[in-house]
Design brief:
The chain is of the alpha+beta class. Helix 1 crosses helix 3. Helices cover 32% and strands 34% of the residues. The longest helix is centred in the middle third of the chain and has 16 residues. Strand 4 and strand 5 form a beta hairpin. The chain has six helices and eight strands; from the N terminus they run E-E-H-H-H-E-E-E-H-E-H-E-E-H. The protein has one domain: Gcn5-related N-acetyltransferase (GNAT) (Aminopeptidase), CATH 3.40.630.30.
């Protein structure tokens, strides 16, 4: 079976998510604190988390979306996930998504995790543009992508529907030529 590439940074290891991670995913995606910025309702059961892992594996061989588990080296614990979706192979673009347990917010970990993913997208996957959709009140997430060189393009009105409430979202993007000139 094909495997995700493993990325290692100073403090983190990004690895393929597997069935051993179902309990973590369930806890993460039922956390009101995490989901307030995510644009999704809490998952209903661990069976949904199992289906998520199965979908990650299924898409691996098709060039579809990928999502890595973010493991803190010091504790060897999974602390979040990151990846890409919304792929247009024709236009060489996709969007990134990411989440982290609240106790790890504000320590620069997500920027550290996303750097190798962006490198992979621009060099190995041949992407020309990577987008990020962020609700305006998630200032920390906006700072993460801005530090990575993303530019805010505009406001997508009522773009996200969560629990029957529509939310605006900012669209950010990073182009391959910008990434290569920075890093």
């Amino acid at each position: 079976m094909e495997k995700y590439p493993v990325f290692e940074t100073e403090r983190l290891v990004l690895r393929q998510i597997g069935m051993d991670d179902v309990s973590f995913l369930y806890e993460l995606y039922t956390s009101e604190e995490v989901l307030q910025y995510f644009g999704m309702s809490p998952i209903e059961s661990k069976d949904v988390a199992v289906s998520m892992v199965e979908n990650y594996e299924k898409h691996l061989g098709t060039g579809g979306p990928m999502r890595w588990g973010i493991v803190e080296k010091q504790s060897n614990r999974m602390i979040g996930t990151c990846g890409f979706h919304g792929i247009s192979k024709t236009y060489k673009r996709c969007e990134i998504g990411y989440d982290l347990t609240p106790e790890h917010w504000g320590h620069g970990l997500m920027g550290e995790a996303l750097s190798p993913v962006l490198h992979y997208l621009f060099t190995d996957k041949g992407m020309n543009r990577v987008g990020a959709v962020i609700v305006p009140y998630n200032k920390a997430s906006s700072r993460v992508v801005e530090k990575l060189g993303f530019k805010q393009e505009g406001l997508l009105r009522e773009y996200i529907l969560q629990d029957e409430h529509a939310y605006d979202a900012y669209m950010y993007s990073l182009l391959k030529k910008e990434w290569l000139s920075e890093f």
